[in-house]
Write a structure and sequence with these properties.
Blueprint lengths: L4 H11 L3 H8 L3 H9 L6 H14 L1 E3 L5 E3 L1 H12 L2
Helix pairs in contact: 1-3, 1-4, 2-3, 2-4
Length: 85
């Protein structure tokens, strides 16, 4: 599935994942994520697929209508990260 910049930003924020951490998980540069989320440039398909895969593994579920949901595991991980801050 190809994700939008809005879905990427929403999933990352919902899961509490920093750009640098997502970049490492997806094997891309943090600048790629920043530019994508800002709408400054559109990554190639394989880069968007890597971002989607990393976010899905962290607990994001991308909807066909452009929405994003989080799995119970993703929410638990996010809540755990908030509690430790």
């Amino acid at each position: 599935m190809s994700i939008t910049s809005t879905q990427c930003a929403a999933a990352r924020a919902g899961l509490g994942i920093k750009r640098g951490d997502l970049a490492e998980l997806a094997g891309v540069s943090p600048r790629t994520i920043t530019d994508f989320e800002r709408g400054a440039r559109e990554p190639i398909g394989s880069t968007k697929a890597a971002l989607a895969r990393a976010l899905e593994e962290a607990g994001a579920v991308f909807q066909e209508d452009g929405g994003v949901m989080l799995t119970a595991e993703g929410l638990a991980r996010y809540r755990g990260a908030q509690a430790s801050e």
